[in-house]
User: Which sequence fits this backbone?
């Protein structure tokens, strides 16, 4: 069973791109709180967070593209009890 992502066993789960988008927003809020801190440590953390934000943005685009591919090829995700669009059940 997945903890966060939608699956047969977790019907109330989220799409990957939705989780990543919320996570990106949290990192942006964290950056906003430290952007004025002039200490070297804060600058390093901010720089790291900026790199993380870039990677999250890339990941969001990839997840969205995967959703588009699945929707275009197999239609929207089905309701509970149906077979998965790709892969095996379980």
Assistant:
């Amino acid at each position: 069973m997945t903890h966060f992502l939608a699956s047969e066993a977790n019907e109330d789960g989220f799409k990957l791109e939705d989780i990543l988008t919320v996570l990106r927003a949290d990192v942006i809020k964290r950056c906003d709180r430290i952007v004025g801190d002039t200490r070297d440590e804060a600058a390093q953390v901010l720089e790291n967070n900026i790199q993380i934000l870039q990677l999250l943005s890339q990941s969001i685009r990839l997840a969205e593209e995967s959703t588009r591919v699945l929707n275009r090829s197999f239609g929207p995700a089905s309701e509970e009890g149906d077979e998965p669009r790709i892969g095996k059940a379980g």
